[in-house]
């Protein structure tokens, strides 16, 4: 069950981070900003889901928190360059 949720979230994250190309510099800037935000939020969601599979009770909460922070950071680095 959790593996399928992670797969769905990962697929959604990749779909959200895709940018359309345009010759207009304003559109490019907006697409880049959207991709950056989507990568950060998507990474945090995926990291939180993966972190929540670790441990139980308080360990699960700590794992989720670390996963959210780490996933958000990694998603930001990948999407924003």
UniProtKB/TrEMBL annotation:
Keywords: Signal. Residues 1-18 form the signal peptide. This is 17 kDa surface antigen. It comes from Paramesorhizobium deserti.
